Amino acid sequence: MARVFNWQLGREMSYWYPESRPKRQFAAVFDTNKCIACQTCSLACKTTWTSGRGQEAMFWNNVESKPYGFYPLGWDVKLLELLGPQTWEGGVYAGRTIFEAARPGERVLGFAPDELDYAHPNIGEDECSAAIDRGAHLSGTHNAWMFYLARICNHCTYPACLASCPRGSIYKRPEDGIVLIDQKRCRGYQECVKACPYKKTFYNPATRTSEKCIACYPKIENGQQPQCVVNCIGKIRLQGWLSAPGAAREENPIDYLVHVRKLALPLFPQLGLEPNVYYIPPVHVPEPYLVQLFGPGAPAAVKAYRAVLEEEKLAGLIGGIFGSTEQRVERFSVENGSAIGYGPEGSEVIRVPVREPVHVRMAYDAARSVMRTNSP
Ligand code: SF4
Ligand code: SF4
User: Quick check: 198 and 151 in contact, CB under 8 A?
Assistant: First the structure.
């Protein structure tokens, strides 16, 4: 195995291929605090890419209610159990990744879900962390919680799917870091399904090949954001490029949230894949659970997010530019009360007010001599 540097772990680790970072890395930020689980993203993806025969159980994008929602069933808890308890020491991961913990004869520690694990794409929907006593809604606040976790392929820097493929059918594009399966080479061994800890490769029994999220690459090549991003009702998503940590640019919205402000964090960084979808953690969930999901940076990210309205730049980016344009925003600025996004060509593609004006209408409209029932 090669030694590679994983900045999310703060250390080197073992991987099956030498470090080879793409020219630009596809990345996205999802704000979990804004997701309403409407599943519009899931359907936008499904109707675009996976409506064919053999793709019935494929959700390249899914949204699950945590802690009890999964797709496929138990994808995360089963792997965490296999890996066993691991620790962080400060910002450095002191445990083993799924490459380092692989069993003899295997390249990655993983498991193959059963067919029935794919039977219920939205199992656990809206189930909260604990049972609530009867009548609790009348007696005040209670401590049960849940939140929505939207998931796509992470187009990982060190993909487990790619490492596991005995046919060399999976490749990471050098121009944008998108991870694809060559359908002509794939023989359907499903090693990638077993290896991907996020369970984001799917077997198609009709074509007998594995398939996965392609990051809507025809749109990416055209300077646009993917379908799941632009159709998001909650405007929780932004797609762009992520620079290596030493080369972060403050005006790049993804770099700003991930590297500069450290507000957006990877999902299960301890597994070692350097995933490139970053999450702003939910602010109402117990810290130990957040640390398990998003790593040791979670408490600081929650604190920073709680203060987001006090900072015009962050408020303008997260509240204004997220979900406001189909174009990819590669540079942004916030000035004179406006958040401005610039596209791949460098020209302005979006300008939105940081704070929406609020108009309060009086209940009684004297000019028309009517009472309004929807005021203010
Ligand atoms: S999330 Fe899974 S399918 Fe996607 S690149 Fe990473 S290992 Fe491969
Ligand atoms: S479309 Fe957006 S708000 Fe709706 S479920 Fe998907 S990520 Fe959440």
Answer: yes
